[in-house]
Specification:
Elements (H helix, E strand, L loop, with lengths): L1 H39 L21 E7 L4 E7 L7 E5 L10 H8 L4 E5 L18 E2 L9 E5 L11
Parallel strand pairs: 3-4, 3-6
Antiparallel strand pairs: 1-2, 1-5, 2-4
């Protein structure tokens, strides 16, 4: 009887130590990610970043300029649909610009919906630098938040949560 109690205690001790080591490893991983997070974000700085069709005939986008709270001018396309019941707020993703996402915007417009495709700071024709943390916009057109859907591709689209 005593040996089975000892085995149970040993098993509990080993399990507790394993969980403790797992917790320590997790905390260390979080610390490393936090320390190096600025180096893990891809900031495109290549000559072809303005490639794409800037005047797509199929979409007929209207160029819209929005002003962030710090005065930075941000470029966007307003793509309207006459029978739209709602509006998609679309973000292009990290390694591109709105001109490279024409098929996506065409699909969204044909749902039918309006599309407001916004470029991040420092991408496409937008001014500024993405490293800035201020991302509050003052739109020139009113769009009801109850009829707006957010569509984005991976990072830095998490910034869109502040809109």
């Amino acid at each position: 009887m005593e040996s089975s109690g000892k085995r149970i205690r040993d098993l509990l001790n080993r399990t507790a130590m394993f969980l403790f080591y797992l917790f320590v490893a997790y905390v260390l991983l979080l610390l490393v990610v936090r320390l190096f997070e600025r180096r893990m974000i891809f900031f495109p700085d290549y000559p072809s970043r303005l490639e794409g069709e800037w005047h797509p005939r199929a979409l007929a986008p209207e160029d819209v300029w929005l002003t962030a709270s710090d005065g930075t001018k941000l470029h966007a396309w307003w793509i309207s649909h006459p029978a739209a019941k709602f509006t998609f707020l679309a973000f292009h993703g990290n390694a591109s610009n709105i001109a490279n996402r024409e098929p996506t915007y065409e699909f969204l417009r044909d749902t039918p919906a309006n599309v407001l495709a916004l470029e991040y700071r420092g991408y496409g024709h937008s001014e500024g630098n993405l490293a800035k943390r201020v991302f509050i916009l003052t739109p020139t057109q009113h769009i009801s938040s109850s009829s707006t859907q957010n569509v984005s591709t991976p990072s830095p689209s998490s910034l869109s949560a502040n809109l």
